[in-house]
């Protein structure tokens, strides 16, 4: 029978992520790097300033349409409108 190597109870350590702040990197270089990142974020935002606006507009239209439909249902269920529509249909059928 083959013997398997013993497993460690701890997961293997991940390598450390490179840090922007090191003792050897001068302050000017760190500032330039940060300014470059900030510039790229601003440019990306300026290219797509209305991303997600269409979804919000659809939501507002959907809510408005639902409210309008509820209003129409309430109006059409009233006795006055039922009588009016019934008289229009009777008058149209009695032509001739």
TrEMBL record:
InterPro entries: DUF4244
Superkingdom: Bacteria
Protein name listed in UniProt: DUF4244 domain-containing protein
Region (Disordered): 1-25
Residue stretches spanning the membrane: 58-76
Assigned keywords, A-Z: Membrane, Transmembrane, Transmembrane helix
């Amino acid at each position: 029978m083959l013997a398997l190597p013993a497993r460690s109870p701890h997961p293997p350590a991940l390598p450390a992520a490179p840090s922007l702040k090191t003792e050897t990197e001068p302050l000017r270089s760190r500032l330039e790097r940060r300014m470059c990142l900030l510039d790229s974020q601003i440019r990306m935002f300026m290219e797509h300033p209305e991303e997600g606006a269409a979804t919000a507009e659809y939501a507002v239209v959907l809510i408005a349409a639902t409210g309008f439909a509820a209003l129409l249902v309430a109006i059409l269920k009233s006795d006055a409108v039922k009588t009016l529509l019934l008289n229009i249909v009777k008058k149209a059928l009695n032509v001739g």
